[in-house]
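Homework help thread (please don't just give me the answer)

Our assignment gives two proteins as sequence + structure token strings and asks us to describe the second one. The first is just a warm-up. Here they are:
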Amino acid sequence: MSLWLEARGDVKANKTKTKLNRF
């Protein structure tokens, strides 16, 4: 379960990073 939650956090962080890189 912990690994699954960590993976979800990574996806969220990647989306945020991509958003920041666009500006």
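The one we have to describe:
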Amino acid sequence: DATTQWRDAVLPELGVCTADFAPDQITVYNTGDGQATVVTASDVLFDDSVSAQEVRLDLVEQPDGWQVEWGGVRFQCSRGDNTTEWQPELCP
């Protein structure tokens, strides 16, 4: 399926999937002609202060492949004052 193709072909090229790490969930949204948004979710991380992480990439198709137009990350913290809401700041 399309999600498997993205995971296996495109995301390693963008550095989102490596031999040591792959997201638990990958969602691909086709946002228009030659554009896509990819959201990866992970809840098994190497940092005990983070309970979950999402990475969002807005991509534009170029003749030589996909290019990141915008990227961002947000976290759910496992400790501190905010353990229920997503936040862009690193967890304490």
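TA reply:
I won't write it for you, but here's a hint about the kind of observation we're looking for: The CA atoms of residues 13 and 71 lie 15 Å apart.
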